Structure formats: C-alpha cells, structure tokens
C-alpha cells in the first residue's frame, strides 16, 4: 500500500498499522496544525513541469540568493519531470519566474494554504509528534511505503511515528515509491494497482513512472 502525503495514513490504515478511528483523529489534528502553521507566514507552493532534481535545485538557489533569510525547498518529487517547490511566497514566485523565463520550464503556482512539506511546517510537526506519541501503532500487515524514504515502513512503531513527523517538513518522494513498487514485485506483489482516491491523479503519475502501466 502507498499514499501520497495525507494518503500515507490511508496506506497505514489499510495495512493494519493504525486503527481507522485513530487515523481520523490524526489527520484532523494534522490538518488543523498545518493550517495554523500556514497562517503564521506568507507561503505557497509551485509545480515545475519538465524539471529534474538538478533543475529544481538551480531554481531554488537562484531565488534564495535574492531572498535572504527565506525558506524554499523541493517538497514533492512526484514523477520524472515534475518537482514541486515550497516556501516563502516571495522566494517561490521568484523561482517560478526564473524557471519559466530562463530554464523554459512550465511553472504552475498551486492553490494551497501554505508551504507544505517544508521547514515552515515545523510547528505542525511538533503538534503531530505529541499526538502520535499517544497513538497505538502496530507493525503493518503488508508493505506500506514511507513518503520520505520511498521504502517500506519498518515494523517498529517508533520508526513509523518518526517517518510521519518527518513527512511534514521533508519532501515526499512519490516517484521513488512508485519505482520501488515497479522494481520489487517479490515484495509488493504482482497484479494491477488500484487508486482508491477520487479522480485519477495518482494513476496519471504512475504512468509517468512506469510506461508499462
């Protein structure tokens, strides 16, 4: 099982590591904490279409050289050719302009409340950590991929808690998750992959990660 960002909780619930009711409480608290962190600073996110990690890094470095003291990081490595930046609005907008004008990438500003999966979410991560400390977590009954590593969660509950906390302030590596599924059928199993969420966003990303699908 695998889920992107909030969907990682769905994956852990499907895998039997977190009870359904406990997962609902966690995602509700997580959402409120992220909203509070977002309201504390002017921040946003931007998708760079056609960018690899090196090109995204160049855009980040360009913006941060001109926006001293601000935060801007790669927040999502969704698929080959799609990287999302996250941070202070000024730096993010400058990086988007540079990406479009100088690197000829398509830069799309995202309609989000704040800079998710960036250090600006540290206050939310602290609150989530407190909630996770009081949540019963078990070993997954099947492989469940961690967003921050692109590898299966360990059976150790404390490790699972740490990966979920880290996810708020670190990039999600969805492309690595999909590559792991593709390259390790002996672990993940053969057969079709089903997208449970509304829409087909992840199905489209999967096709970019694995052209056979």
Automatic annotation (TrEMBL):
It holds the Pfam family Acyl_transf_1. Residues 1-213 form the Malonyl-CoA:ACP transacylase (MAT) domain. SUPFAM superfamilies: FabD/lysophospholipase-like, Probable ACP-binding domain of malonyl-CoA ACP transacylase. GO terms for molecular function: transferase activity. It comes from the Eukaryota. SMART domains: PKS_AT. PANTHER family: MALONYL-COA ACP TRANSACYLASE, ACP-BINDING (PTHR47170), MALONYL-COA:ACP TRANSACYLASE (MAT) DOMAIN-CONTAINING PROTEIN (PTHR47170:SF2). This is Malonyl-CoA:ACP transacylase (MAT) domain-containing protein.
